[in-house]
Amino acid sequence: MRIGIIGAGQLGRMMALSGIPLGLQFTMYDRSAEVPGAAVAPIVTGAFDDLRALARFARGVDVMTFDWENVPVASVRAVEKIAPVWPPPRALAIGQDRLREKRLFQRLGIPVAPYAAVNDWHGLQRAIASLGTPGILKTLRLGYDGKGQSPLRQPADAAAAWRQLGGQPLLYERFVRFTREVSLIAARDQGGRIACYPLAENVHELGILAQTRAPFSDAGLQRAAERQAKRLLVELRYVGVLCVEYFVDRGRLVANELAPRVHNSGHWTIEGAETSQFENHIRAIAGMPLGSTRARGHAVMVNLIGRLPPAGKLLGIPGLHWHDYGKSPRPGRKLGHLTQVCATRRDCDRAAAAMRRIAGRRRTTESPLC
Amino acid sequence: MRIGIIGAGQLGRMMALSGIPLGLQFTMYDRSAEVPGAAVAPIVTGAFDDLRALARFARGVDVMTFDWENVPVASVRAVEKIAPVWPPPRALAIGQDRLREKRLFQRLGIPVAPYAAVNDWHGLQRAIASLGTPGILKTLRLGYDGKGQSPLRQPADAAAAWRQLGGQPLLYERFVRFTREVSLIAARDQGGRIACYPLAENVHELGILAQTRAPFSDAGLQRAAERQAKRLLVELRYVGVLCVEYFVDRGRLVANELAPRVHNSGHWTIEGAETSQFENHIRAIAGMPLGSTRARGHAVMVNLIGRLPPAGKLLGIPGLHWHDYGKSPRPGRKLGHLTQVCATRRDCDRAAAAMRRIAGRRRTTESPLC
Lengths: 370, 370
Fold this sequence. Notes:
Helix content of chain A: 25-40%
CATH architecture of the largest domain in chain A: 2-Layer Sandwich
Largest sheet of chain A: 9 strands, antiparallel
CATH topology of the largest domain in chain A: D-amino Acid Aminotransferase, Chain A, domain 1
CATH class of the largest domain in chain A: Alpha Beta
Oligomer: homodimer
């Protein structure tokens, strides 16, 4: 069976690395052949809205998926008649629109932060008056890694936020005074069976995921998150891996956003779980049963952003796993990650501190507002 | 850094799958492009004794290794001036000659079964008279997976054995009444640091490895095997992974043979150890430090030989890992393997029984003579 991946970044690369041992073959589609996926699959190049090139690509594969949440939905819908696309294009469309996402969460009884759609300057004023500050103004589309967001500490910040983002559909959201950020990675196979990984705890720095630790180990929140993920997966007739990111606000989950794909906060599963998120995504879209999502211990994952530390220094740390995506360095760019699996959570914290030192980072927590 | 692998079978494929996450690139050389390695690396085709083609291949890579122990030593020596070859060609030469192998074992104080070189029919008669039966007549060269061997239950079997193998350099070896077969996978990096995996216990069927279980968990034998492996690695100025196969005879190790490469009895390390044999081999030849060889629990590996069972049935077993090498079926051919990692040895035995049922095999032990 040949699997086509639209997008050939590090996520596509890690999907192929997990699927090749299953006897599957891969082809990827991206704008350039100089992509991380090129190390493991032939790359077909073309624009993401070139429907003819995409159709040719689709005719050469048995099933398709994507590794990037901003692939145009129209492109995916145009080729899904040629070869099935999983996750379903509807999930992709919802993941690309913060308003549809919020409304779906609400309709399924999944708590979200209070919000209001903002279409003009007066709409922003009304939203601030009704929801108060602090809050965040966000674009509905193309937001990731902290892009397309502007925080408002006080009503007077509205003008600056509007200058930055105004002129496109927006959403104003009351800031959640969260104590933690967690995410759930869940998978659904073609027979409708669902498997969830343990919740992972995430730390963002400057809007980009810096560190993930798993399992988060809160039985009540795990049950709540799994219940919510199941509702989403069933509603969307989902096949593949889905990620839901949450804030933990006074012991309760508040859904922030969903990603209809394998997710950076699930990279720990490569070494830290019985079956990785990548293998389970590929198993699901290839019509195979899901593998066990059991954690192997306590895992910590640290992202390598902007520059890579020397491999020799890192690999000398016993038990450290190094993933270099083969990308050229650039400030703010995710170039690789490190994972360590430990017997206890305390060992994990110590390992994380050592990894961060080597990765050239010091802080472990940062909130965009506090 | 680009690594060239001479031979692009399943071992080369698994080397590349473990090295690509480290940011390394791979090219492979084999007689055909229809090889398991083709899924993960460009293949340069040519005969293994085509020195011009091999030289061209060597010029395109930074360091070379091999995934097959019968690559002609002359070929490797001819290209090692262009790019370094690890493990060293001397180790390859010794692995290809049972007599040199035995003599090296003896010189380093590593116990072997009593043996005699056999060059003609009278030599075989003398060897039988001196060492007795049962015994095994073996070719010095090109023996693997039980090929090039003929067992002698009694002196009268000599004629049949001679008919089968006579006319080439041979060796007669007294049969070791072993209780177990075990193997040690050891690695040495370019700085001379050595790391050994826990001993694994192997079961052969019809001369082909059928099952491996690890760790074997005998502290005394582990110490003895590590001591012996270190002598071999240092003597050979070895870089990369080495496998030594042993019989256990009345509680003592008797060395059977060495393989100067990653080995089928080390496949369990992909899921069952902190760092796989493949990653440690690649780290060593790429000049990186070795990773931890700690076992993650109790692992069992079952080879899939001749035909593959349906993937869906296998993947439904929780915790089972499936490796399909992408080869076409043929009787006696290794097409893939299964691995399961369990908390206890008993769980492992139960898992092994289920895996063997699905793999279509029943027996777990078989000796060529008893």
